[in-house]
Amino acid sequence: MNLPLTIEDIKKILPHRYPFLLVDRVTASDGVKTIQGYKNVTGNEDFFQGHFPGNPVMPGVLVIEALAQLGAALLMQRFVGQQVYAYFAGIEKVRFKKQVVPGDRLDLDVLVVRDRGKFAVIEGKASVDGQLACEATLMCMVGE
Asked: Catalytic pick from 51, 98, 105, 118?
């Protein structure tokens, strides 16, 4: 994996597109167990229209989705050229510690803790300005 990966590189790995592609750049990875990247959170994101007008906060489920997409970008490296997708198989131990608001850079850090080929367990942490915003354990399955 040649780093950093730009948004155009990420679009070659993940099937997600605007407005649901939630990773803007991959900054570091060992190609097997760890990957880091970020999402620039801007005030013109579609979800801010209704969550919450006058007090915009990035929905927690989208922070989790950003972590999952980053993890999928790592896992999908071994399936290049195959018509497969990474799907959620479970979510555990989710904790939200800080709100994510327009203007934030959401730094994402994922570690693969269990890898069984097409099934993996990953631990993800999302932070803003060095402060933990969210952490979770995610189960992912690769399939058609």
From this structure: 51
